[in-house]
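ESCALATION

Customer reports they have been waiting on this structure for their group meeting. Please prioritize. Original submission:
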Amino acid sequence: MNSALIPNLDLRQENVALPLRIDNPNTSAVPGRHTHSLVILDNRELDRQCLAQCMAAQKADLQILAFGSIEEWKQKRDEYPPLSAILLNVGGKKIDEPTVSEQIRKLSSEFASTPLIVLADSDDFGQIVRALEYGAKGFIPASVSVSVCMELIALSVAGGIFVPASALFAMRHLLDSSNSTARPLSGIFTDRQVEVVEALRRGKANKIIAYELNLRESTVKVHVRNIMKKVKATNRTEVVFKLNDLFLSGSSPASSLC
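Update from on-call: job pushed to the front of the queue and completed.
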């Protein structure tokens, strides 16, 4: 009787363990089924291994790799499928901490064609803006489920940029503040540039801005270029992020834009 029960018990244990099996200390995988890989970077070994196992159970066609640093991955990169994305788990650290901000900048620069997604305990709007400003292609709060996290990573791989809904609500609050423009923009932009800035923050195209402000489109383009120079931005999206960060912090233009 016991000999008949023991094999059944072992089979049940094997079936439960198989989807979460770790082939080596740095990877969660089912061999021979992966065409791409996702690297989780987290210097906390228990955290990264737990996350890797959970993700591997959700995404059978993607090899989930967990490392303490990108240098560890580089030493074994030839053993794994091509890299699809990098998930940097900063935990409770602040994005503007020097070590974190430098890591984001370095990774986003070195892996320009591979989306870098930040996973963090916080969903603070200012932290999200800074992460994207430093080069991240997405910001995922730790409050989401593993399945949602995997979907958001897939969005970034497809070329999208994800930010939490809380960030959009914070941005809307800023846009709805009737007297928010004068305070942070006073002394840095001309009156006409302030009007263009407000239009840019609302996502309006140059043609619409020109129509609403009774300007030539070429004149609007000149204003946009001058605004970009003043906030040291390289494109319209970066202008919006920097201006919204300025509005949120309430800092003086000189200290925030230098």
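Sent to customer with the following note: Residues 1-31, 178-183, 251-258 have pLDDT under 50 and may be disordered.
Escalation resolved.
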